[in-house]
Design brief:
The complex is a heterodimer of chains A (42) and B (175).
Chain A: E1 9-18, E2 21-24
Chain B: H1 2-5, H2 10-26, H3 41-46, H4 56-63, E1 74-76, H5 77-85, E2 95-99, H6 103-114, E3 119-124, H7 135-143, E4 147-150, E5 152-160, E6 163-173
Helix pairs in contact in B: 5-6
The chains are: A mainly beta (42), B alpha/beta (175).
């Protein structure tokens, strides 16, 4: 695994990928929103 | 992340939840969200909190989403995993695009497949070698039929009458 900082560049090459649904999974490892609904187990 | 990253495995979920609760209690860790909504670090110090760890990135992600991400057809990864892990029968459509190249994205892609999505494609900025997910995770996803488009980033979620119809992606040059 490469641990160096990833800094991409972009050019104007674009394309479309057909889809019916999108799930955003960027930066989710540090998403602590689930703590709000974490309820104690019985 | 184990709490919601392991869908459909009740025993592991109970164990991970108990470990999380025990860890928070053992180390006197308090969790709080919504900093900035009438809450501030000064207030936490007044309550005797010795140190704070802030993770504003996730909030920033949600407040600065991709253009077109206000559609009902756009979900967030952890929300999706959480709903599935809690037993909800999440109905996905046929063609699902997962944006991201980390371990959570792989979990999301695999879970989407198991939720019935016929065509699941991961799109990530990184090359296959640079992806934050472990290589064995990516290999496993590919074996389960997940497609991968590395080195492309999302530019816009294209909508048709409010529903997602495509994702416009832009090529990422090597760093």
């Amino acid at each position: 695994m490469i641990n160096a900082c990833f800094v991409p560049g972009f050019d104007e090459t674009r394309k479309r990928v057909e889809a019916d649904q999108v799930i955003l999974a960027i930066g989710q490892a540090c998403d602590l929103s689930f703590l709000d609904r974490l309820v104690p187990l019985p | 992340m184990m709490r919601y990253g392991i869908p459909g495995t009740g025993c592991l979920m109970i164990c991970s939840t108990r470990r999380l609760e025990e860890s928070l209690a053992l180390h006197s860790i308090q969790t709080q969200s919504g900093l900035g909504q009438g809450r501030h670090f000064g207030a936490t110090q007044e309550r005797g909190v010795s140190s704070s760890l802030s993770r504003p990135w996730s909030t920033a992600q949600r407040e600065n989403p991709l253009e077109g991400s206000d559609s009902l057809d756009v979900l967030w990864g952890v929300d999706f995993l959480g709903r599935v892990a809690e037993g909800e029968k999440v109905q996905l459509k046929e063609r699902v695009i997962v944006i991201g190249g980390g371990s959570v994205a792989v979990d999301v892609a695999l879970t989407a497949r198991r939720c019935g999505a016929k065509d699941v494609t991961m799109i990530c900025l990184e090359t296959r070698e640079e992806m934050p997910a472990h290589p064995w995770e990516v290999d496993g996803a590919l074996k389960e039929g997940v497609k991968l488009i590395p080195s492309w980033g999302p530019h816009e979620i294209v909508k048709d009458n409010g529903r997602v119809s495509a994702v416009e992606i832009i090529i990422a040059c090597p760093s």
